[in-house]
Predict the 3D structure of the following.
Amino acid sequence: MEEIVFSVDLGGSSLRFAVFDLKGQCLDLKQVPSHLLQDPLDLVRHLQDLAYLFLKKFSKNQLLAFNLGVPGLVDLEGQVLASPHFPQWQNFPLRQQLEKALAIPFELDNDANQAALGEAFFGLAKEWKDFVLIQIGTGLGAGIVLDQKIYRGPQGLAGEVGHMTIEKSGAPGALGIRGTLESLCSLSGLRDQIHEMLRANPRLGWEAWVDSPQLPEILAQRAREGCEISQNLWKNLGSSLACGIANLVHSLGLFYFAIGGGLSGAWDCFEAPLQEELQERLYPCLSPKVQVEKSALGDQAGLLGGLAKALASSQP
């Protein structure tokens, strides 16, 4: 009987629940909009419903592993201490609640950590022993990999690089902290910047699509077509991201970085300003060693990370 893996990736836009075989083929996939999951108990109910739905289609005896990646501070006990884009989740005992709801074993992790495992097993980082995956989507998070293992820190909370301060007097981010990397380099950050521009210049005419889920694609296409305002938004994102990467290089001594998440689809719009700014922010002797590349998996890294974790755990 063919073994399968359940893999869940929850982001700011949607929850995706995939069923993989051990060869990496996606056998089934369901999605739930994230706005339906603001109450953490709704998340538990949807996961329970989807798990039971798939267990009707596949046998429970086939299930090798069930891995979930969720955004925010997830401690070693499986409690969500904070999740900026899901404010009702604060101090929610997610693992405990899921154990009550699900009759099958599962593993819970931060979404960026799970995505980093996907990149390590299936993406461009297969040849990298130590690296950082920076996930840019609705928010910004990172998975830090040392010696091919996730670095979690003593409380399991490492990798929240989106909340490092880049501009002391910058705009407040999701937690109200000013000038964070996430407030400058994320979908929510781009959206906030555009709303600020619209308040200053209502004639800009971007109201129709600024809150659209397709904002990154629209903004990228406009930049490619020569829209100077769009180009400047991506330029600022790239240069701000470079500052964050330089901080990680100097503090962690790591040289390899993969850029993933939904906004990595616009890599061609911000790669050049990122690389240019990065050269100005690094020790000259370190600059030739640092490699920053677009993730090979894009927004699929989280789902494939759930599979990667299962494969790694099953190896003797």
